[in-house]
Write a structure and sequence with these properties.
Layout: H1 5-18, E1 38-41, E2 56-68, E3 83-95, H2 101-124, E4 134-146, E5 152-166
Length: 167
């Protein structure tokens, strides 16, 4: 049976949605002046993001590699061979704040908090509700961009690596 990318990327998204409540620890929106509005499986580089949907978190699969976990044939007719799959996810956190230059400077601080909250989610939910053997945030990159209407946004890309065992 092939690896189920859709189910596993959904588990990553659901972990973040579960942590986007005031009672969650860590709360995905903790320390932000505006709660995260959108948590979706999508490609922020090509999707129609609106400024009113921000702050937002998007997840997508970046890459994957597979290896046999034991000896034996690995063809589609064998059901007893187990395999490891290592998947790299890109989690994009986007943040925007309207206002004067002072508020724009504060946006960077809030973006750091958003990165901490995304990383904290996967330090707590390191098995993705039992779908993964483990996962961990591997790196975070910070930058900025412009939406189609000229709105400037700040962003963080958290690279999450997860390891799965499947048949």
């Amino acid at each position: 049976m092939p690896f189920d990318y859709e189910a596993n990327v959904t588990a990553v998204r659901n972990a973040m949605r579960t942590q986007n409540t005031t009672t969650a620890n860590p709360d995905l929106s903790s320390g932000l002046t505006t709660r995260v509005q959108t948590v979706e499986i999508d490609d922020p580089e090509v999707s129609g993001i609106q400024w009113r949907d921000l702050p937002a978190v998007y997840v997508r699969v970046s890459s994957a590699s597979e290896e046999a976990a034991g000896l034996g044939p690995t063809g589609p007719l064998t059901s007893n061979v187990r395999k490891f799959k290592e998947v790299t996810y890109e989690i994009s956190g986007l943040y925007h704040k309207e206002g004067a230059a002072q508020l724009t400077r504060e946006t960077l601080t809030e973006l750091y908090r958003m990165a901490e909250n995304i990383e904290g989610t996967f330090q707590r939910e390191y098995q993705l509700s039992g779908t993964a053997l483990w996962c961990h945030p591997e790196s975070s990159q910070f930058g900025q961009g412009v939406l189609g209407d000229g709105t400037r946004i700040k962003g963080v890309m958290v690279t999450l690596r997860a390891r799965y065992l499947f048949r």
